[in-house]
Amino acid sequence: MSLIKFRVCWSDDDNTLRDIEILSGQSYFDLHVIIKKELMLPADMEASFYVSDEHWKKGKQISSTVEKNIRDAIALSMKKTPIGALIVDPHQKFVYECEHPKAWLFYLDLVTLLPEPMRLDEFPRCIKSEGISPSQLGIIPTEKDSVMEV
């Protein structure tokens, strides 16, 4: 089992990103849960991953609403599909699309593939966090308030 590092970037703001490490044997559902946690998205929100090419064109779907994998189905189950099963390229990309009224869209870039770590109990985890969550946009000011600076 290898360690995979993904960079998750919000499609609407290049300054919002999270670097997440996950084991290749963990599921897309595990990745879904950590993304929601680190980006402060609604806990009950459903979403889908899509295998993507370098132009972010959506391919095979991995859905949080599908319960089991069936041959030739439209979508795979997040809970039943290990991360490593769909990584065919060391520069693999995925699109993460939220089923939410705001239809948030995130891009996942595979950054690094590393050997299995010594401790397996600390994954998945976020190792870098920049920018504000889309759910916080408009709640947390993004520009400095000149009155506050005085």
Based on CA atoms alone, the radius of gyration comes out at 16 Å
Arrangement of strands in the largest sheet: 5-4-3-6-7-1-2-8
Q: Helix- and strand-based class?
A: mainly beta
Number of helices: 2
Write the H/E string, N to C.
EEHEEEEEEH
Distance between the termini: 53 Å
Number of strands: 8
**What is the average of the pLDDT values?**
89
Which stretches are low in confidence, meaning pLDDT under 50 for 5 or more residues running? 145-150
Shape: globular
Strand content: 35-45%
Q: Considering DSSP H and I runs of 4 or more, what fraction of the residues is helical?
A: 10-25%
What can be said about the biggest beta sheet?
8 strands, mixed
Care to describe what's here?
This protein is mainly β and 150 residues long. Helix content is 10%, strand content 39%. It is built from two helices and eight strands, in the order E-E-H-E-E-E-E-E-E-H. It has helices at 28-38, 146-149; strands at 3-10, 13-23, 46-52, 58-63, 75-77, 93-99, 105-114, 125-130. It has an eight-stranded mixed beta sheet with strand order 5-4-3-6-7-1-2-8, covered by helices on one side. Strand 3 (46-52) and strand 4 form a beta hairpin. The longest helix is centred in the first third of the chain and has 11 residues, at 28-38. The protein is globular and about 35 Å long. It starts with a strand and ends with a helix. The relative contact order is 0.28. Residues 145-150 have low confidence and may be disordered.
